[in-house]
Amino acid sequence: MTYVPDRITSKPGHTQDGYGGHELDVPTWPVEPDRYRLVAARACPWANRAIIVRGLLGLEDVLSMGLAGPTHDERSWTFDLDPGGVDPVLGYERLQQAYLARDPGWDKGITVPAIVDVPSGAVVTSDFPSITHDLFFEWRDHHRPDAPDLWPDDCREEMEAVMKRVFTDVNNGVYRCGFSGSQEAYDEAYDVLWSTMDWLEERLTDRRYLMGDRITEADVRLFTTLARFDAVYHNHFKCNRNKLTEMPALWGYARDLFQTPGFGDTIDFDQIKRHYYVVHEDINPTGIVPKGPDPSVWLTAHGRDRL
Ligand SMILES: N[C@@H](CCC(=O)N[C@@H](CS)C(=O)NCC(=O)O)C(=O)O
Known about the structure:
- Residues 141-276 form the GST C-terminal domain.
- The record marks 233, 276 as: Lowers pKa of active site Cys.
- 36% of the residues lie in helices and 9% in strands.
- The protein contains 10 helices and 8 strands.
- It has helices at 45-56, 96-102, 128-137, 156-171, 173-178, 183-203, 217-226, 229-236, 248-258, 269-279; strands at residues 14-15, 29-30, 36-41, 64-68, 72-73, 76-77, 114-117, 122-125.
- Glutathione is lined by residues 7, 44, 46, 72, 76, 109-112, 126, 128, 279.
């Protein structure tokens, strides 16, 4: 993987021995229990991945987590859910403080998820794909004994291809629809999104999960977009050919995951809706947050166990 200069990142973010040696000008941080804090927000799909993977792997006791609230002040994410508006471990009011601790001149995005080094208060990485990758590969010694194999060797190549398509057309595709600056760009993004949604619908008709009969990283990545689909993307991002609830296989699959420990319990629909509809003033200038849809449908029977 290459160093992405507009994000604070270290590739790899964590190495077991602390000596990455991949990027001479980018420090690496050793894996160390109780040293780092995952800063996430329940609203954000990219952060949601990290919350889910941390839980599935049983890393809660070695990697603490701070949660920013769903909306922002003028300097992005704040810890307004915490008593006194301060993260109890970092002592920060804003995630921006961790970015400035790493680089006092930081004037780019303040994004979640971020891994923060607690002793120095500095962001280690905000590179979301490498965060979950590292939690699996570099933090292995600290996984719970029955942790799922989220990156199985025997289907890695196919899984990477599936994740690439899901990322481009769906995870990122919904944003491309929502933030397109022209009718042509929107039409193109919409068509690409739905052709991949149809492909996923077909793929999931005869298999329980994306890679067959076990949950992998690919499912985590698709789930976080599907969980937001009808509540936000269908309306706010104009991804409205149909609702997720109208695609039998995908809807069954999404509910199956939602009802699996570690998935649905990370979802807060109120925070999700407030984030998108309030923060994106450009596409929702009134800031009005829709009341629906009824989230109880997520708990209905999915029947996917037969697969
Ligand atoms: N932009 C990040 C991905 C994570 C991301 O976009 N997170 C969003 C929230 S969903 C964010 O923190 N945006 C900055 C903000 O909301 O101020 C990246 O490309 O590395």
